[in-house]
Amino acid sequence: MELSEVSRRFIVHWGEMGTAWGVNRTVSQIHALLYFCGKPLHAEEISETLNVARSNVSNSLKELQNWKLIRVTHVLGDRRDYFETSLDVWELFRTVVRERKEREYEPTVRMLRELVTQPEFEHESPDAQDRVRETLRLMESLGVWADEMLRLTPNTLEKVLRMGASVQKFVRGTPKKDGDDELDIPFIPMM
User: In this structure, which topology does domain 5-85 adopt according to CATH?
Assistant: First the structure.
């Protein structure tokens, strides 16, 4: 498959961003290719298109399957496995959040909960105990918030995201223009 300049730039950039997010560059580029082209591709085609070793493609496809970001599909008359990704950006976002929450966030919360229940924890300084408990409270609150956000439909989630700036202004308040310390509370339209 011949890549256009636009698709090449998208795929290269996605690979660079993947490394910033802690994901292998080839894994990110393969996902970007599948997302950008919007159709199932077999491993050989991916390897040739990205000029990446077939073994690297195989390992990267396994990683993407482990993340639940791609699935295997088949083409009538062709025995090869083809790979495709969701073309719904909101579903991809939710998948990444769910997977990262399961792999990174939940083990940390479990560890913090275990720490505060161990008898040795009481031997730590009161300040250290407070910091660990506060960290646990914050992490648990973020977990509840993330779970609620993941339950929303994409349309509702987009509205919540757009509403975020208005909520921040409401919570912060805005100083009056005449220099008075009173706060103006902005009007937030109901959706």
Answer: Arc Repressor Mutant, subunit A (1.10.10)
